[in-house]
Amino acid sequence: MSYLILVRHGQSRWNLENRFTGWVDVPLSEKGIKEAMDCAVELENVKIDVAFTSKLIRAQETLLLILAKQNKTGIFLHESDKRDKWSQHPSRFEENEIPIFSSDALNERFYGDLQGQNKQDAKDKFGEEQVFRWRRSYNVRPPSGESLKDTYERTIPYFKEVIVPQMENGKNVIVAAHGNSLRSVIKYIENISDEDIPKLELATGKPLFYSFENGELKKAE
Ligand SMILES: O=C(O)[C@@H](CO)OP(=O)(O)O
Fold first, then answer.
1. CATH of the domain at 214
2. Is 174 helix (H, G, I), strand (E, B) or coil?
3. Based on the structure, what is the number of domains in the chain?
4. Which of 21, 47, 146, 200 could form a disulfide with 150 if both were Cys (CB 3.0 to 4.6 A apart)?
């Protein structure tokens, strides 16, 4: 058996300011750093073999704080490092080192024209219901942005083709990512319907555990 841990990054500076963030690469707030450190304490004795994160700094900071508490050196393996044969060989990793794969497949939903806008201002301008549809429905796209379905369609192939094989090889995996990319992953794992997905909210910096056994992922209680 192996396991999967999903963690949404700690509060970012734009979460704090209540602004749509999407692919804008803002860092954690002071509270977000504390949330990530609290999460690290919770995970301190949990054995992690391989880590996945997005290309965005708030998720990467969260992951690195978690690994630091375990006294692990996370080493980013960049796909572009063609000359860097060393990092292509996981056997070269020391006991206290773990590989980190970062991919834009795990990025937050692209929020299009809403990025940077204050969420309350958007509700005042477009109405509460419309903003809720943009933020939480499965199919509705925010202006020039991605619907959750679009996010799902880039996140889930990566999850199935790159992340799941690690668990098939008996590795314990952590994924540090974002509210909507993780809502996609949870929708897939837990088979949540399009109608029910708007109800799923993820707290910042709170790990979710799944066990992987006989090819099946199950929520660990
Ligand atoms: O602004 C964003 O990028 C996301 C996550 O913080 O917002 P929401 O929860 O509204 O989808």
1. 3.40.50.1240
2. strand
3. 1
4. 146
